[in-house]
Amino acid sequence: MNQGTTTANVHRSKWILLLLATVLIFLAAPSASFASGGIYWNNLSWDGSGMNVGDCLANQGGCAGLVAGAPGAQPFWQLSGGAADPNFYLTSSVPLTFTFELAKADNTSSDTFGWYDPSNPTTLHVLFLGTATPGTTQTLPAGSYGFYLTDSTVPDTWYTQSLLNLSGEQSDQHFVVFDPVSSYWIGMEDMPFGDSDKDYQDMLIKVTPSGSGLSLTGTQGGEWQPWSTVPEPGTISLLVIGLVGVAFKRRKSVR
């Protein structure tokens, strides 16, 4: 092997190492967990990497171990333009079982989740405190239900019909609903948006009807929007390294 060939090989090896280092640095940087863009609940959680509500439902990142099992990337409710629907409630012709799945907020001990009659929103009924044990259930009869979340530390209360929120927060939707066909999953954000990570997993509730007959009513329209996960960083790293190896081998054979 002559000096020129040796020098070329050294330079080539340096470029490959530089490429791999760049890829690994990129993968180590915080990034969204999902392929779809413009999702109002898909934000980096202050609780840690891979900890927003989508990570929890997809059983990936730092959020795993839901009591009822992770349903995966199921459609969520939003306005047709991509924003959160600021006003919605659920209607069911059959009894509903509510399961407390998890609470990840710093203010967990101050949080209260409950329901109200959309026709009488001044009367609030408690379902769960933020300190409830995962797996705890409550049952409600058939009917129409709006939901609220109170954080007594702030203090503030937010409603699925956000026009009921305090002045200045009436367009802020603190709830997201996912529809895995057999049950709904409700994720919540328990801080004012001006001081919030908007990860929507400060409390996560599963709503299961005893039969068919559960539906969501959006007072401003809306639609079920699909989303999808992307490969874990480790998987991407292996793919990139494999592609670099193939390219290196091909270049060597051509030479």
What's this model, at a glance?
With 255 residues, this protein is an alpha+beta fold. 21% of the residues lie in helices and 29% in strands.
Write up what this structure looks like.
By secondary structure, this protein is of the alpha+beta class. It has 2 domains: 3-30 and 232-254; 53-225, no CATH class. Helix content is 21%, strand content 29%. The strands form 3 sheets. Strands 2, 4, 5, 7, 8 and 12 form a 6-stranded antiparallel β-sheet that branches. The protein has a 5-stranded antiparallel β-sheet with strand order 6-3-11-10-9, with no helix packed on it. A two-stranded antiparallel sheet has the order 1-13. The radius of gyration is 23 Å and the shape is globular. The model is unreliable at 23-32 and 232-240 (pLDDT under 50).
Strand content: 25-35%
Which structural class matches the secondary elements?
A: alpha+beta
Strand runs, count: 13
Order of helices and strands: HHEEEEEEEEEEEEEH
SSE layout:
Blueprint: H1 3-28, H2 53-58, E1 76-78, E2 88-92, E3 96-102, E4 111-117, E5 120-129, E6 137-140, E7 143-151, E8 156-159, E9 175-178, E10 184-188, E11 203-209, E12 214-218, E13 223-225, H3 233-254
Antiparallel strand pairs: 1-13, 2-7, 2-12, 3-6, 3-11, 4-5, 4-7, 7-8, 9-10, 10-11
Which properties best describe this structure?
alpha+beta; 13 strands; five-stranded antiparallel β-sheet; 29% strand; 255 residues; single chain
